[in-house]
Write a structure and sequence with these properties.
The complex is a heterodimer of chains A (290) and B (539).
Chain A: H1 13-16, H2 19-35, H3 39-54, H4 60-84, E1 97-102, E2 113-117, H5 118-144, H6 150-156, H7 161-189, H8 202-207, H9 210-232, H10 251-272, H11 282-287
Antiparallel strand pairs in A: 1-2
Helix pairs in contact in A: 2-5, 2-10, 3-5, 4-5, 6-7, 7-9
Chain B: E1 7-16, E2 24-31, E3 36-41, H1 47-55, H2 57-60, E4 64-72, E5 75-76, H3 82-88, E6 89-92, H4 105-115, H5 120-133, H6 149-161, E7 167-171, H7 179-194, E8 198-202, H8 206-210, E9 216-221, E10 224-229, H9 231-237, H10 247-254, E11 280-287, E12 296-303, E13 308-312, H11 319-326, E14 334-339, E15 342-343, H12 349-353, E16 356-359, H13 372-382, H14 387-400, H15 416-428, E17 434-438, H16 446-458, E18 464-468, H17 472-478, E19 481-486, E20 489-494, H18 496-499, H19 503-508, H20 515-527, H21 533-536
Parallel strand pairs in B: 3-8, 3-9, 6-7, 7-8, 13-18, 13-19, 16-17, 17-18
Antiparallel strand pairs in B: 1-2, 1-4, 4-5, 9-10, 11-12, 11-14, 14-15, 19-20
Helix pairs in contact in B: 4-5, 4-6, 5-6, 13-14, 13-15, 14-15
The chains are: A mainly alpha (290), B alpha/beta (539).
Chain lengths: 290, 539
């Protein structure tokens, strides 16, 4: 059986809108954010995402795990690009050194050197703001979209009955996969299996994940066959389908969509005029002694 | 005359594309309006294949060679699309978990009607009517995920009834239900048949179904119909080891047979208070998955050497949560659990696994290896047993579950019943001192599960055995200690003859006294303890 995300009906900005309007707004937000590397523009998107999260009515305890996991991931990668200086080199050509840190030790004859440059600092910051804004908006969706509305939302966005229902099932497959993974993990731990003790080379390590990956995969396949049978037995896909849930656009939903489209259009214009690219404040460049 | 019959099956045979031999052959029968037909038989006898052929999944979803014909209200269904068949033939699968698609009860019940493209108003009316009919209107706006097993089964049934079929196929609808829910479901099925629906019910629990007076019984074996007729005739043709009959019938018939060898598997002398330190100790254990709602509340008890414990209780009472604490997969929020005197907070699951073997409910969550041998060797290897010892342990475990010939087969290619036995053997091979099993008999046929329960209880290496079950008879026959769990509390804990005689308490825990329990209570002054029906015949 498919498990659902932890949706609850809440008094919140995000749930005040029609789910279709919110998905359209979300897509506009997503694509617009991806146009920019300028932290000044990106902070506008950060503000939108923060407003959404603080008005979402979701308690910290509910999303703590998701936030810490994804937040940790984003910080880790931003920090990694900062350390290595890789990743942003397509956006800037010259770097302005603020300070060079040289390690007091060597690793196999190689002495690690960290160049702290203005560009690296600002690239890391821009990356953090950009990915964080998108991640926040994305994490909120499963908590705020009523699972009973998934199908009709996608249908309302113009997808066919079959594709819309498939999307509905896919959305619910992800938490189901998580539950099956946990059950398998427990079953194998009860047989003395310890993930922490896996050693050996990469191939050996992957091989030792077999006890987890094989049952989870097989379960997913059997599960989807069951779902197909259950759908077939109740006449799915024979013709146009009635969707029990009805969604109605109201004035506020149209305003939200208009706002989303406006942001997207404005972003396109700004980028077209040559703004919004990677930016470093003058003051910092002077600090670096330009 | 035939044309007026809701269902006619003529010379039906089917062979699955990738399997040798026919799954069913030479099957002919018909069913009348308002008839309740019970279909019984061992695992792999072809019951499910027959159901799939009638509801059209064969040959549409399951490919193979199909011969013979099926007529629904006089019309052959061969060329029909599934959607047309599904309007006449409704199917409720064994496990409601595998059938429910909707997130909310109303959406689930409406699913078929939505697919038929009915007007929204009519869908709501029909769905509400189906819910009201089954007496579950109060569940209408609940999430399907949070329902109990019995509620899920009723919701799945409502989803099928809303489509107003004239024929209803039920494939082992009782398998995952607690006894009280099973009784409610059965009463509902009887009512549907009385109101004119043709009902075909596949079920292992023959004894339970006999209570609602099926009009006829079909007994299948090896893909063929071995008996089709009234209930009294069935009892003459089948062996009482093959299907579970009411205790009184077994007692009458077993009196002529020799005394059963397996009757006294373990001695009554073992059991509670046999001294020594407890193997597992629960001290005021409380646990909840979410803040504010505890699944376990203040559980304190000891598991001692010689205990064979049956844990009984309703769906969602906290039974699985309770036993997961014994192996340290869950740690108590307050209180503590000691295994061999060591607090589970300070021990890893892998360490406890050497002492306490835990067989999960579903084998598909653990089988992964390429051969049965490798699967069984996994646990002993993790525990660091030497190679020669591991080999010996694996071979012995395979003998116990009667799968020695399958050593080189891939476990995932075995039948469900065999997979379940592999999952039990995988734990047996670890040579733990305590064996814990979560619903070991679910999805197994009577003869099979009685046989491996007998074998497991005969094993000398276990110091204690604990199993979760919905089957009161399993507790009656095998346990020397019964724990009733309801709402996260231990409601009763004692010898079977003390705990199970309190029918009010059983009722409160959604259990139903069985004919075997009743017979045992009647004989108790003479026997002094509970035993299986075959043994009672010789008292």
């Amino acid at each position: 059986m498919l498990v659902t995300w932890r949706y609850r009906k809440r008094k919140s900005l995000i749930q005040w809108f029609d789910p279709r309007a919110w998905v359209i707004f979300y897509l506009c937000f997503l694509f617009s954010t991806l146009f920019f590397w300028d932290v000044r523009f990106l902070s506008f998107f950060l503000v939108i995402s923060l407003v959404t999260v603080f008005t979402s009515g979701i308690r910290w305890s509910e999303i703590r795990r998701a936030f810490l996991f994804i937040g940790g991931f984003i910080f880790f990668f931003a920090f990694l690009t900062f350390l290595t200086g890789r990743g942003g080199q397509e956006l800037y050509e010259e770097e302005h050194l603020i300070r060079q840190m040289v390690a007091p030790f060597t690793l196999f004859g190689w002495r690690p050197v960290l160049d702290i440059t203005v560009e690296r600092v600002f690239f890391a910051l821009s990356q953090l703001v950009r990915v964080f804004s998108i991640a926040v908006m994305t994490i909120l969706i499963p908590y705020s979209l009523n699972p009973a509305h998934y199908g009709v939302t996608f249908r309302g966005l113009g997808l066919s009955d079959k594709i819309a229902y498939a999307m509905d099932l896919t959305m619910r497959f992800i938490p189901t996969f998580g539950r099956d993974f946990q059950l398998t993990m427990d079953a194998q731990r009860a047989r003395g299996y310890e993930l922490e003790k896996i050693k050996g080379g990469l191939i050996e390590q992957v091989r030792k994940l077999g006890p987890l990956m094989v049952p989870v995969t097989i379960h997913a396949i059997i599960g989807s066959e069951d779902i197909i049978d259950a759908m077939d037995l109740r006449a799915f896909g024979i013709g146009p389908r009635t969707w029990l849930e009805e969604l109605k656009y109201e004035a506020k939903d149209r305003i939200l969509i208009a706002f989303g489209v406006l942001i997207l259009a404005a972003s396109l214009v700004i980028v077209f005029w040559g703004f919004g690219g990677f930016w470093v404040p003058e003051a910092f460049l002077r600090l670096a002694g330009r | 005359m035939t044309s007026s019959l809701p269902l006619v099956v003529e010379n039906l045979a089917f062979r699955y594309r990738d399997r040798q031999g026919a799954a069913i052959e030479d099957i002919s029968f018909s069913a009348e309006k308002g008839e309740l037909l019970l279909i019984a038989g061992a695992s792999g006898c072809g019951k499910t294949t027959l159901v799939r052929a009638i509801n059209g999944l064969i040959p549409r979803s399951y490919k193979g060679e199909l011969a013979g014909r099926i007529l629904v209200h006089g019309e052959e269904t061969t060329g029909w699309p599934l959607s047309r068949i599904s309007q006449s033939v409704g199917t409720v699968l064994q496990d409601p978990e595998r059938q429910i698609l909707g997130t909310r009860v109303l959406n689930e019940v409406a699913f078929g009607l939505e697919n038929l493209g009915m007007p929204r108003q009519e869908i709501v009316e029909r769905a509400d009517a189906a819910l009201a009919y089954l007496g579950i209107s109060h569940l209408r706006d609940r999430e399907t995920f949070n329902l109990s097993g019995g509620e899920k089964q009723k919701v799945a049934l409502a989803g099928v009834l809303a489509m107003r079929p004239s024929i209803l196929l039920l494939d082992e609808p009782l398998a995952s239900l607690d006894p009280a829910s099973a009784l409610e479901t059965l009463a509902m099925v009887r009512q549907l048949a009385d109101e004119g629906m043709t009902v075909l019910m596949v079920e292992h629990r023959v004894e339970d179904v006999l209570n609602i007076r099926p009009d006829r019984v079909m007994f299948m074996a090896g893909g063929r119909v071995r008996y089709l007729g009234d209930v009294n005739g069935l009892i003459k043709v089948v062996n009482y080891h093959e299907i579970k009959l009411p205790a009184q019938m077994i007692i009458e018939r077993a009196a002529q047979d020799p005394f059963p060898a397996a009757a006294n598997v373990f001695s009554e002398g073992a059991g509670r208070g046999s001294g020594g330190d407890p193997l597992v100790r629960f001290e005021d254990v409380a646990f909840g998955y979410e803040k504010g709602s505890d699944v376990l509340k203040g559980i304190s008890l000891d598991i001692r050497r010689g205990d064979v414990i049956a844990i009984l209780g309703p769906n969602g009472a906290g039974k699985t949560t309770f036993v997961k604490h014994a192996i340290g997969l869950l740690k108590p929020k307050s209180g503590r659990v000691l295994v061999n005197g060591r607090d589970t907070h300070q021990t890893s699951v892998a360490e406890i696994a050497g002492t306490l073997g835990y067989v999960f409910q579903s084998p598909s969550h653990m089988l992964f290896a390429q051969t049965v041998f490798e699967e069984l060797a996994f646990g002993p290897r993790n525990l660091g047993h030497p190679k020669a010892q591991t080999e010996k342990e694996v071979k012995e475990a395979l003998d116990i579950v009667n799968l020695a010939d399958k050593e080189k087969d891939p476990p995932l290619a075995l039948s469900f019943g065999q997979q379940k036995r592999v999952s039990i053997a995988a734990i047996l091979a670890m040579r733990s001192r305590i064996l814990v099993m979560d619903e070991p008999t679910a999805g197994q046929d009577y003869q099979n599960y009685m046989s491996f329960m007998d074998s497991i209880l005969r094993l000398p290496n276990f110091e204690a055995i604990l199993f979760i079950t919905h089957d009161v008879d399993l507790a009656t026959i095998y346990a020397n200690r019964v724990i009733l769990v309801a709402n996260g509390r231990v409601e009763a804990d004692g010898r079977p003859q003390e705990v199970l005689r309190d029918f009010d308490l059983l009722k409160a825990c959604r259990l139903v006294p069985t004919s075997l329990l009743q017979a045992n209570l009647d004989y108790l002054p003479k026997t002094g303890r509970f035993m299986r029906a075959e043994a009672l015949a010789h008292v």
